[in-house]
Amino acid sequence: MIYLDYQATTPLAPEARDAMLPWLGGPESAGFGNPHSPHKLGRQAAAAIGLARDQIAALFPPGGRVIFTSGATEALNLAIRGAPGTGPIAVSAIEHAAVLDTAKALRRAHVLEVDSEGICAAEQGLPQGTALVAVMQVNNEIGTIQPTRDWHEAARAQGALFLCDAVQAFGKLPITAADMIAVSAHKLHGPKGIGALWLRDGIALVPTQTGGGQEAELRSGTLSPALCAGFGAAASLAAERMQADADHVEALWHRAREVLTGWDLNGSVQARWHGNLNLRREGLDVARLISDCREVMFSAGSACASGSGRPSHVLQAIGLDDAGAKSSIRLGFGRYTQLSHLEDAAKILMNAASQQ
């Protein structure tokens, strides 16, 4: 098996797994305590969560706090639904569904255009009275890096808050300045089922769920020390390895571009995270290609929208018609991808595509 779907999820780092194990114990261990209990076991679990919170916070800008959530979808919903104001919510046309669908559900969405490379330029301006601007740092389907600093400044000029989905950037690139930032552990070699919302100091949100208010009175529910510890260890490791990982990804990108010939690139070459390679080939039957290349794990787009049968809204936003969008594949690679495995996958893909 050759895994090339890093945008969907990443392999769990051994260091993250090891950090989780002490908090997955049975009745004979000391790692099963409720972190919100006042006794010794509870305090030990709370200390593990505190350490993880500090490890994750180290990857964010100074002057904010980390709120644990079940993942980025919950973090984005908390930020959008809990943000003050009733004005328009300006979102780029290629945002994740957790942003687009939430803004539309609130009947306040103002969609910002992107160009043919998938770049959402801040020069297009914002509608009067905008309350919130949401532009992701790195797109999950085509890897485009957005001018988020420009959008942060544009939002501030309007008196609006700026929310950044940094799921694909966290642990890989320096995180942008923002008022709120959503991230997910399993996209940087941490466990599934946990994410975080970073809030700049002074930002007050309205809770979107009721209960115990365990997380800064914004989110209710018992935190998992194991998931938090794994997230923290993954974040700490990402901080240590950021340059080495980036260098490895760059080498993989250049080799992939050399060996995958006859494909057109979707998105920008320069303003892009090079761990994402979204390609199209005229007349390609992607469903057949996936079936014919079962030993290579890749996707036709966002894993969150798989099975819908609809063309990618991201590829449509950059100007592709239905046929172009449906003849595109996404390859994602990173820390644990071996160059030889990438080359083997390219041969398999090229051979299968040539048979269509």
Task: Describe what you observe in this structure.
With 356 residues, the chain is an alpha/beta fold. The protein has ten helices and twelve strands. It is globular, with a radius of gyration of 21 Å. It folds into two domains: 120 residues, Alpha-Beta Complex (Aspartate Aminotransferase, domain 1), CATH 3.90.1150.10; 163 residues, Aspartate Aminotransferase, domain 2, CATH 3.40.640.10. It is 35% helix and 14% strand. The chain has a seven-stranded mixed sheet with strand order 2-8-7-6-5-3-4, sandwiched between helices. Strands 9-10-12 form a three-stranded antiparallel sheet.
Summarize the structure.
This protein is an alpha/beta fold. Helices cover 35% and strands 14% of the residues. It folds into two domains: 2-7 and 241-354, Aspartate Aminotransferase, domain 1 (Alpha-Beta Complex); 62-224, Aspartate Aminotransferase, domain 2.
Indicate the structural class: alpha/beta
What proportion strand?
5-15%
Distance between the termini: 23 Å
Per CATH, the superfamily of the largest domain is Type I PLP-dependent aspartate aminotransferase-like (Major domain)
Tally of discrete structural domains = 2
Strand order of the largest sheet: 2-8-7-6-5-3-4
Mean pLDDT figure? 95
Main sheet characteristics: 7 strands, mixed
* Extended strand count: 12
Helix content: 25-40%
In the CATH scheme, the class of the largest domain would be: Alpha Beta
Helix-strand pattern = EHHEHEHEEHEEEHEEHEHHEH
- What general outline do the C-alpha atoms trace? globular
Low-confidence stretches: none
